[in-house]
Predict the structure.
Amino acid sequence: MARLACRLIVRDRQGRPLAGLRIAVEHASEATPDLAAVTGPDGRARLGLPPGGVGLALFLPDGTRRVAEIVVGDDPDRTYEVNLDV
Amino acid sequence: MPNAKPWSSSPATESAAAFSRVETVGSPGTADPRLTADTLDLLVSGRNGKRIKSTAVRIGTETVIGTDDRSMISETDKLPWRMIAALRLHAKAPFEGEFIGTGWFIGPRTLLTAGHCVYSDTDFGGWVGSIDVIPGLNGTNQPFGSARAVRFSTLDDWRTRADPDFDIGCIHLDQPIGSDTGNFKIASFSDAELKDALLNVSGYPADRDSGERQYHHVNRVLHASARRIYYDIDTFGGQSGSPVWFQEKPDSEPVAVGIHAYGIGGTASNLNLTANSGPRLLPEVVATIQEWLQVK
């Protein structure tokens, strides 16, 4: 399984970091473990993801679910920005 | 006495030696040992040639298969639920971040979980830094308190090759919290024992109640490969490491036979299955786990 160490930063529509979000993989090109990451106070999280399209499920502290799609490149340690309309 | 004539035997037609059963000892713990009526309603036991629910179209999530049939567990201070712990995984610097997983007691100071909950090059940069273990977490209620673990074990096949068939990890605690909660028995089930077995899976999914409540689901073994068990039991991210267990009868001792690790993306397409999966507790794996139980 060729997962890459990826950094995520999650922000709201005003560009403010969203802390305490739980992130799980909805779909990806390869199998991913059934782990969930949690964003820190700066809205950042780290997750091992396979290259290609990845669908993420993000859960706000109030339980609201959002989805986001990112395209993971071949190079590790990239930061992917996820902007949510909240 | 005449000499015997030369003779030959046909090649063995059985493909493998007899499967050896290796197991550990379970315990109900010192807390209330009774099974509640609600628990007996939820648990499945025995074997069934039919699946509990019909095949349904995946509704878009990696690991919930068809309709989400998970049940929230409210009696997490009771058996068997209290033997299952919410995990909060903390990476060491320079990796940052927290993760949600699930573990379960196999001894007073020892839990099993997925290998990727204790070791991951991509999530932790190697070994996880620390894990907060919260048995029977139920919202803000921690009926048995919590403990922070900093000692872990995993199979070399997971650590060196990230082979999902060996995705098994162990958490070592200093405090014997498992004496109160009780612990699962684990056993290496043969293919025949797994056939049509009804399985229970319970853990802490991140999509429900902030990952702070335990959710349970059941179904039949769909397929058992040499090293993995496949089942259409609903799970979600956060349930990595959940116990996959069998009970002969509703009030029988729960026996863990696998560890949940992957959603449907972890099932090879050539199996023609829509299933979640986890590594089997094979004889040599149980023998390794018996050594982990002795780690001080």
Confidence is low (pLDDT under 50) at residues 12-16, 54-61 of chain B.
